[in-house]
Every structure is written in C-alpha cells, then in structure tokens.
Records
---
Amino acid sequence: MRGIGKYFIFLGLMFIKREKFSTYVKLVIDECVLIGIDSLVIVTIISTFIGAVTCIQTAYNLVSPLIPDYIISLIVRDMTLLELAPTITALVFAGKVGSNIAGELGTMRITEQVDALEVMGINSASFLALPKILGSLITYPMLVIIAGFLSILGGYVAGTVTQVITPEEYIYGIRADFIEYNVTFALIKSFVFAFLIASISCYKGYYTEGGALEVGKASTVAVTNSCIAVLAADYLLAQLLL
Amino acid sequence: MIKISNIRKSFDDKEVLFGIDGVFKPGRTNLIIGTSGTGKSVLLKCMVGLVEPDEGVVLYDDRNFTEASRNVRRDIRREIGMLFQGAALFDSKNVEKNVMFPLDMLTNMPKDEKLDRVNFVLQRVGLENVNKKMPSELSGGMKKRVGIARAIVNNSKYLYCDEPNSGLDPKTAILIDHLIKEITYEFEITTIVVTHDMNSVMEIGDYIMYLYQGKKLWEGSNDEILDARVKELQDFVYANKLMQAVKDRRDEG
C-alpha cells in the first residue's frame, strides 16, 4: 500500500513546479523517436506472426462444414482488435520500453544525475518522467494501430498462402458484422496501457537505491509490475466498457 | 555566506548529525573533513536540500533555505553549483551540452551568448577542443573539470564539491584542488568542499570543519590543524605516513 501511495505522490510531483512548456516539446519529440520508432521492428514482427498463427489455428479448430470460412478472418479481426493488438503489444512494450526507462532512470539516480538536476532547481521527476509518459501516450496508440493492421494482414497472408481461406472470403470476413466501437475500445486500452507502463517504469527507475545490481532489479520489477497492471487494467476495462 | 545552525539528522533510529553549527564565508575554500561514515556527505546534502534535516536551519545570505517555500528554495538552488563525487555528467549529452544545460534551463540567453559562456568556462577549467566529446570518452580528471565548468557556468554564488579528488591520481587531484581554489577567489564564491584527503586540507583549507561521529569537534585553518589538540583529529591528520613524517620533522625542530 505504501508503494502505491508513493507512486501517486510521484505522479503528483511531475505537475508541481514543472519547467516551462517549451522545455518539454523537444524532450517529448526525442522520447517519441526513442520509444516509438525503436519499438516498431519488434511490434511489426510479433503482430504479423500473431495474426498469422491466429488465422491458422482458428482454421484448424473450425472443422464443421456448417461454419463458413469467412468466420476465420472475422475471428482474427475481433481477436486482434479486442485483445491481441493492444494487450500483447503492451506486454512486449513493457519488456522493451519499460525496462529501458527503468534502467535509464535508475542509472541516473545511482550516478547522482538526478541529484544534479535537483540541485540546479529543476523538478527532476517532471523533467525526466513526464516526457517519457507523454512520448508513450503519443506513440503507443500508433503502434497498436500498426499492430492491428499487420496482424490482420499476417492472417491474410498465412490464410491465403496455406489455402485455408480464399482472399475473397478473408476480405468478406474482416468486413462482416464489424463493430466500430471495438476500434475505440482498443485505442482506449492503448492509452491506459501506455500510461501504466511508462509511469510504473519511471517510478521504479526514479526511486532506485543502491548500485548496478539494484538498477537491474528495478528494470525487472518495472516490467513485472507493468505487465500485472496491464492485465488487471485489461480485465477492468473489459468489464467496464464492453 | 552560508550559515548552518543546529543541523540534526537521523535515519530510522540512527542519529547521524548531532546539531552542527558553522559559518562558511565567500571567497575562501571551506572544507568539511572527517573519516568515512562520519556524516560529511549527509551534512552537505542537508545544506542543498537533497536530504531534509530533522532540526536546524541553513541560511544562504540570511535567506532561510530550510523553511523556505518551494519557490524561494528553487530560486536559491539556482544560485548553487555542485560538483558531485562521480561528476554526475549527463551520459546522453556531450561536454558542450552538459555545460550549457544550466543555461538552457535557467536563463533566456541567446544561443551564441550561451556558447561563448560555455567556451569561456571550459577554457577556464583547462579544457579546450572537447566540446563534442561524450562523458564516456573523458578521463576521471576531465570529468571533474567538466563538472566544475557546469557548476560555475551560471555564475553560481555557492559551490559545493563532494569529494572532488576521489578516484584521481595525486597530481590530477592537486590540479583539481587548485582549480577549485582559484575559481573561489576569482569569482568570490562561497565554496564548500567535503573531503577526507589531507593533501586537499593542506593545499586549499582556508576554513576547516572537522566532523567526528556526527559532531563538530574542531574548526580552524590549515595553518592551525597540525597543532590542534584534539585526539580524534590528530589520529585523522596523522593517519598516513607522509603526515606522520611531517610531524616527526616538526617535533625534531
């Protein structure tokens, strides 16, 4: 409970006596590049393969001749939008970006770089964490959109190459009974997950104490806690918004 | 001038500082010395606000830092420069950006003016043509010089140095000591150096405060320290063979 309280105090600290707005613009752009562009390759690979595997496995399970083939792509689409694109990407994002953030801030803490900012009269929590959180909030939803597209595309390629579904049926399936709200829901989840991963990782890194060993531990704990928070939020959002 | 009075600090049940008083005047190098674990760095952190003292007051030119509002404290901090033990340079920025950082954050100077100021302080600390180097490419002594340059670039009124000689060879350590002393005199800064290096004490100690187990046991100058009649201080001063030899020579007349 104490840790949760400290986390909320940390979030509050970022907005008390923060630096002028223009200071953050360049920092946020830098973080968008670091967080977003650098995650693109791994997100591309994972989402494409997840879509492909979902398509093949769904086809494998749909053995009844009464169920039309386009249901395969319909399932790929809904699974992608509702769960795979926002949540699986979040877990990958936590592993890559979360550990990176915690490691960076942890190293800055133990090498007194955070103290150096404080002594200069700069709000270190705000200066270091806020751009990372904003950068994540801007780029993660974009990554989710890309992941969603690539997952469905991966399913298309895998399904048509292996001939479990024809291209026409696949296209028909991803258009059938489409609920637009699912896209909104995926984007809402992406914002929540981005905030949780970035803020938890910043918090864990910012309060690192000790040496190099503790920085490693902080990174691991940041990833673990982020993943747990993402899964808990995933369940809560599903209950509340669906 | 920095005044501290009755600074007390404890962590959990362990009392680290037992009511420290002192006056650190501008234009001279003030040293806080003592053995490891005696509370020097904690005292320094209390003075800059990185650690909150349990009791006591820190005054910067009669401005109460300890009880100041967040705004006043921030204004005072912007007059403080600090050289950290490991220099604490920002890994992701090159030398020029590291030194320019306080100017970027705290002033509205035009870029050309900032660059001139950066080059001036880098030249002052004896570093030229290193502007584009990253901290990882610098030696320990160079990092300390960049740290000093960053600490004074904003015309700081107060300069704190936490163990500026740690990890340096004796020759570089003396160069850094002299640099700190020269800058203190030249810019009339109130400089406080935390150290346990007796070479620094003898080289630059205009005013010395000796801490022992969280208490101030002695204060004076480097001219007086060799004759101080405090046993703990004598044990500290004459702990190494070189100082012991100096003592023996003095005793022999």
---
Amino acid sequence: MFRHLLKLMWNKRRANSMIFLEILLAFIVLFGVYAFIFYNLNRYSSPLGFNYANSMGVRMDLNDDLDSLGVLAAQERIRQDLLAMPNIEAVTWVGPVNPFGGSTWQTGSMVRGQHILTQMMFVDEHFANTAEVDMLEGRWFDESDLKGKYLPMVVNREFKERYYPNVTTLVDSIIDLDGEHKIVGVTSDFKYKSNFAENFPLSFFAQPERLAQDDPFEMLIVRFTPGTLAEIEEPVYNLLVGHTKNTDVVIWDMAKDRIKSNRNIVLPMIILIVISGFLLINIALGLFGVLFTQINRRRAEIGLRKAMGATNGQVTGQFVGEMLIVTGMALVLGAFFAVQVPFLELLPIDGKYFYYGIVGAILTILFIVVLCSLLPSRQAAALQPAEVLHEE
Amino acid sequence: MIELKNVSKSYRTDTIETLALQNLNLSVPAGEFLSIMGPSGCGKSTLLNIMGLIDEPSTGSVILADQEITNYNGTQIAKFRNEQLGFIFQSFHLINDLSVVDNVELPLLYRNISGKERRRMALEALAHVTLSNRAGHFPNQLSGGQKQRVAIARAIVGQPNIILADEPTGNLDSRMGDEIMDILLRLNAELGTTIVMVTHDDRMARKTHRLIRLSDGERVS
C-alpha cells in the first residue's frame, strides 16, 4: 500500500507542490525557532551562580578629589554606615561591570602557549558574601591577598573547564593575565549578564587594579532582609546623599533588573513563538483546504475504492498516508538543508541544538498534519459508494 | 449464487418517500449471465448496488455465494466485496493518476498479497482483455473501449465469482460495445463467472442467458 500511495503522490506531484513547499518553509522556520528556543532554554537552565534576590543596586559619585587611600577609606565608611542600618545584611563595592548592568569587559592573553580569553569583573573582597557566590574550590580573596606578591584573582568554572580541563585544582596557580595574578578560588557557574547569557570564562579582580587606573568603584550591591526594600530605600538614599553631598544617587531593585535583562531574549522568543503559531495555523488551514478540495474532486475514486473492498479505516489511512508522504518528502528535504548548519558549523553554537530543532520541527509538523488530515479523511471514509459512483 | 428475497428499497427526504424497489425476488444461479433492462429510474442500478453490497435494502434479505449478508458489519462486507465481487461501471471510474496496470491492481491492494504477485495477476488480467501492451499507459491515453477493457481487467483480477456491470457499453459506440460484450461473454463461458449486467441496449441483452425487466421498482418479466 505504501508503494501504491508513493506512486500516486508522485504522479500527483504538481498538484501537491504547493503543500510540499508550504511544509518545507514551515519546517525551516520551525527548525530555526526550535533551535533558538532550545539553545536559550539550555542557557536559562544553568544557574546564575549568585543571589540577586533581596538586593539593591546603588550608583553614586564619590568625591573626585580623593586619592586612592581616601577613596578606600570613604568606601569603607559608607559600607560600615550601611551595615549599621537595620535590615541590611551585607554590602559590597563593585566596578562598572556588574550583575545585569549590560557592560562587558574582556581581555585576552597568550598564557603558556594557549590563548586565554576571559570576561572581567572588578569587585571587592565582600562580593562573594554579599552576592552569596557559590565556590567550587578555594575561597574568595580577602584583605590579606591584596598585600601579597601577586594580585588575587578568582575564576569561574567555565574558565577552568575551557582552559585547564585536566588540572586537578587551579588554586594557588600563578597566571599572567594583564600582570601576574594568583588564582585563589574557582566559583561554580557564574553568569552576570542575564539568565540567558552564555557560560563564558570569567575572572574576578580586586579593586586596587582599577584604583591604579584612577577608576574607583562607584556602585554598591546592598543585600537586605527579605521584604524590607520599601522601608530601607529612603534611609539608604538619605545616608548616601549625606556622604556624597549631591543627590546623584540611583537605587534599583536587582530582581527587577534581572527581569529587564532577560527581556532581550524573552521578547524575541515570544515573537518567534507567535509567528510560528500563525504559521502552524496557516499550515493547518492549508491542509484542511487541500484535503477537502481533493476529497471533493476524488469522490468517485473513494466510492470506487470502497466498492473494491476498502474499509473505512483503509480510506482514512489512505488520505492521512498521502498527506504524510508529501509531508515526509518535504521534511526529508528540509532536514537535509537543516543538517548542513551544524555539519558545516555555519553558526558558532553547539550542533546538538540544531538536531533538537530538527526533531522538534519534524514532530510538530507531523502532529499537525495527522491532526488536520484525520477529520477530512474520516469524512471521505464516510462517503457512500452507491451515491458517489452514481454522480458521474 | 445470488438470491434476493422480498427486497425493497426506499429513499426518504423530509417531505417525500420514493420507492426504488418493491418486494423484489430474484435468484441468479452460478455461471449465469443475466441482464436487467428497464426505463431510466426504474431501479436497475439500485438493484445492482444492493447485489454489490454498496447499498442496503430497506427490507428483505440478500444471500450471496450461500452467505446471508444482511447481518454483516462494514469490515465483513468490505472483505466480501473484495473477494467475491467485481464491478464494471458505465463511466469506467479509472484513476487518472495511476497507470493502467496500477488501476488493475487496485482490488488486490486490499488483500494480503505481495507487490510482485499483484503485478503478475494484474498483467494476467490485462492479457485476458488483450491490453498487455498498454500496461504502462495512463487512462487519458486510452480510447473509451480500451478504458472499459481496463475496467474489466480490474473487475476480474481478484478472480471474483460475481461480476456486476452497470451499463458497461453505455458510453461506447456499437463496435466497441460489441468488443466489450464479447469479452464479458468469454469470461462467463471460460471462467464460469456469474455476470449481472444492467443495460439499455436490447441487442446486448439478447446475447445473455436471461433477461429480466423492471418497471417502477417492480419486476415485470
């Protein structure tokens, strides 16, 4: 029967060319959408690596006239004053690259024969405690590390796995990355841009390196007791304004900042899903239309087949089968094109997401085709041969 | 072979009931070539459809090949039609998108027969109607007479015991009609196939073993 249907559909190839084309295009669009969604969902599923809840971000100007020691002293005073306030649990100073801030710094260097490319964050020694960073090995740097021979540095898991996969521990390793640094700890996954950010090698450096560039930290992360943001926001603002002698202090809720940073991916994802939804509706309507038209044109053939001994199930199966054959041909061609993307490494993304995309698109289209074929096919099966054979 | 007992058939719409057949009794022994004549609308095709199990009688019973069919379900009827009955229609009803040999194979698709065996049987059936040289052609490349020969090959390919022909020469000129009639007579004589033929052509009907006439749904002779 399969060969018979294959032959029939091949002989009707002109009539089926439009539906073939429609399914092929739908497959290519769905493939892209699924690959994009799977890729981003996978990114979303990996943890941020720090706690953003019950934290506020604060941006403020420090006095430009202060020297390095003066900056450090002023920062510590502000930190202590904040910690002295009720409902404030931890405070840290961070550089211009900070969680959900949208900025990125990267540096690259040849280190013992391999090119190391890493994103950079400059933070103080209280960052791990305030943001509740999960440490994989070693520890966060402290004040004593700042006085050592080498400047301290902490890297994330991706850094270690990408550049030192066979090294048991990176702790106490010396690495020449914009100057000699000593790695004191490795965090687990750490993504500071958004939940959808790529797990990229990341290195944390201490503030003195920025101070040497006359670029002191001007942002704070303040962790507070859950549910107290509304009551502490104003006192914090007043305290900081008192310190800076100007009103240029901005406070924001980091949880909201995270949502905003995720929107860059969520919004296109929603748009793509809506477009795909319309596309699928279009396919469904197209299939309905094609099948109803075909069944109307082929009433005599249906009657004939039933007269020749076809059961209702066989007639239903024939029309569903015909649609599946056209669909199958379009999907095979579509999959052939789609496979080229990971095969030829056309995009710098792990190939598995494209294979997931192929499988997802195939299953979705097959589901829609079977669903949309069943109703018209059943109507075809219900035709009375005596009636339709008499029509001509 | 075919026995109809008190068969009546009525069609009902919202306002009117039309009686197509009335208390018809008919017995067709195995190997007989029977023709049915009557004016248009007298119930000839309805009678043929009931014999062919593609329509149900409103009352009465149908016995085919010694089997009481009345209580068969859809699947059993489909199987019976496939194995025991062959149909020939006035307008041929060939599938234009299939080649001649694929059209002939059609009834065998609904049996558990391998593709190779199907092809062998279809070519054999085409040889019976002397159309082997047209096996790869498509219906729109054939004349009316050739199309009807293909339809006959399709009707006999499953080696049915009964062939039901609804005005098989109705769309053909007299020369082609004679050709088709000769084939049907040969099938009846050589294979012993029971044939029931509806016709308007008295000349064709006289060539068969027996003729019955219908008028207003009743048998008049």
